[in-house]
Amino acid sequence: MKLVIAVVEDKDSHRLVDALSDQNFKTTKLSTTGGFLKEGNTTLMIGCEDENVDDALEIIKKNSSQREQMVAPISPMGGSADSYIPQPINIEVGGATVFVVPVESFFQF
Amino acid sequence: MKLVIAVVEDKDSHRLVDALSDQNFKTTKLSTTGGFLKEGNTTLMIGCEDENVDDALEIIKKNSSQREQMVAPISPMGGSADSYIPQPINIEVGGATVFVVPVESFFQF
Amino acid sequence: MKLVIAVVEDKDSHRLVDALSDQNFKTTKLSTTGGFLKEGNTTLMIGCEDENVDDALEIIKKNSSQREQMVAPISPMGGSADSYIPQPINIEVGGATVFVVPVESFFQF
Ligand code: NI
Ligand code: NI
Ligand code: NI
């Protein structure tokens, strides 16, 4: 058995937990970091059999990888509104840090 | 040495930490989940020698197992108070998810 | 590879994360405990190669060990301000609990 510890962005966590649950992975949502990250993080612990680790990793990768997202920029303060044409910009969102740790035993009481 | 990672309900955590402490287990209370669980969870990390793991598990089981609890139901809104006889109902409370992980070394600085 | 799990005081965590980062350790800041500790705790997870574990431990020890700190006591309520001479006192601050756990695989998506 393995313990998969995945740290993902808050905004990806609900979708990821749902996707894991759809494939019968039991997920324990550990915690959210405090304010020091602009985007809060969520830590998921997923206990899974050795033969299912690759499937779990695939689901994590699919639902929380770092990716680019187009956003509309805020229009500049005090600029001339007439001449300003907002261009969508790309920002990086998401990303997952994943540790796979051996588990000697697992219990649910 | 082993690291016992136990996720329990908030309401069980104080009693469990006390019971572990009474048996000289050092417990690190990690974190409480945010709002998405109605009952918040607490994660405990207990570093213990191999020969003490079973004792720690027994204490966790005794103090945080899933169990039924009788609660008085809320009386129905707008119902006839005269004819309403509240029946206590059973709800499930508690429960622990426990991972036992090998530890290569442990330090207190 | 190893996963170094360090539980330190909030007040030490920023300096410690900076010191680890200066030596190219990637740190995941997990969570802060709720109110039950007067001084909140922060849990750091540091994934590092086997040969770098000792360096990581040294940085943790240097930046978050338990130590004494001189503080000015609060002047006693209702005491005679004229005759009261505050003496600095020593309190214990800091401290780190560290588990080194084997990691089978590590991913960043
Ligand atoms: Ni959902
Ligand atoms: Ni108590
Ligand atoms: Ni800094």
Task: Explain what this protein looks like in three dimensions.
The structure is a homotrimer. Chain A is an alpha+beta fold. Chain A has helices spanning about 10-20, 55-65, and strands at about 1-10, 25-30, 40-50, 65-70, 90-95, 95-100, 105-109. Chain A has one domain (about 1-75, about 85-100): Alpha-Beta Plaits (2-Layer Sandwich), CATH 3.30.70. A four-stranded antiparallel β-sheet of chain A has the order 2-3-1-6. The longest helix of chain A is centred in the first third of the chain and has 13 residues, at about 10-20. Strand 7 of chain B pairs antiparallel with strand 6 (about 95-100) of chain C. The structure holds nickel (II) ion (NI) (3 copies). One nickel (II) ion binds next to helix 1 of chain A.
Number of DSSP strands of chain A? 7
Helix count from the secondary structure assignment of chain A: 2
Question: What is the CATH class designation of chain A?
Answer: Alpha Beta
Count of discrete structural domains of chain A = 1
CATH fold topology of chain A:
Alpha-Beta Plaits
Specify which chain pair forms the largest interface: A-B, 19 and 26 residues
Q: How much strand content do the residues of chain A show?
A: 35-45%
The N- and C-terminal alpha carbons of chain A lie at a distance of 18 Å
Task: Please trace the helix and strand order of chain A, writing H or E for each element.
Answer: EHEEHEEEE
- Overall geometry of chain A comes to elongated
Oligomeric state as shown: homotrimer
Quick one: biggest sheet of chain A? 4 strands, antiparallel
Q: What is the strand arrangement across the widest sheet of chain A?
A: 2-3-1-6
Mean pLDDT across the residues of chain A is 83
Q: Radius of gyration of chain A, rounded?
A: 19 Å
* Small-molecule binders: nickel (II) ion
Low-confidence parts of chain A: 34-38
Given the helix and strand composition of chain A, which structural class is it? alpha+beta
